Amino acid sequence: MGNNVSLRFTGALITSVVLAFILLLLPLSESWMLWRPEWIVLTFIYWCIKLPQKVSMVMAWIAGLFIDVFYGSILGQHALGLVIVVFMSIRLLPRLSVSILWHQLILIFLVLGTYLLVNLWIMAGTGSNPATWHYWLPLFSSLLIWPIYSWVMSFFHVERSRFDMF
Questions:
Q1: Is 0.85 surpassed by the pTM of this model?
Q2: Which terminus of the chain is more exposed, N or C, with fewer CB under 10 A?
């Protein structure tokens, strides 16, 4: 999938992660906060699908540290989660045909579900366990928003035809 894709401009990947952080930082009401999609996770999954050779675990770790600082969580909690996201996404790519939407949704469900589960385990181990099922709502909102989000993200790269490769 990534062989015929190139970045539209040099900092496209970093810019998309920064925009995901902006979406994360947007103030929302309490009821909307429960449904906020995991923008940064979706961004890393998107780039793992499109350009897996450009996504690094170091970049995921650094982004996760920024999330930890923003949420005031244990330093490394979200960083570990994002490294797992990148690892799982790249490892699962050969097993799925990611040009099919429902295969992408399966990938997102597995990877984002694991990310949320790892964070839940860490929170439970530190005594700040969310007691309600509302914790899982971002998984469903992320699945719902994915087709639109992947379309928006497509503006950061160009698809090359096989004649453009030479």
A1: yes
A2: C
Q: Is residue 164 part of a domain?
A: no
CB 28 within 8 A of CB 37: no
Return d(Cα 34, Cα 15) in angstroms, integer. Answer: 26
Residue 97, sorted as left (phi over 0), alpha (psi -120 to 50) or beta, turns out to be beta
Q: What is the dihedral of CA 50, 19, 57, 111, to 10 degrees?
A: -70
Residue 79, domain CATH: 1.10.1760
How many domains does the structure of the chain reveal? 1
Is residue 166 in a domain? no
Tokens describing residue 109: 């469900």
Per residue in 41-53, pLDDT tens? 999 999 999 999 9
- Of the candidates 46, 49, 54, 69, the residue with the CA atom closest to the CA atom of residue 149: 46
Q: Quickly list DSSP for 108-144.
A: HHHHHHHHHHHHHHHHHHHT----SGGGGHHHHHHHH
Structural domain boundaries, residue 49 = 2-159
Is pLDDT above 90 for 30?
Answer: no
Q: Which tokens in the block code for residue 141?
A: 């909102």
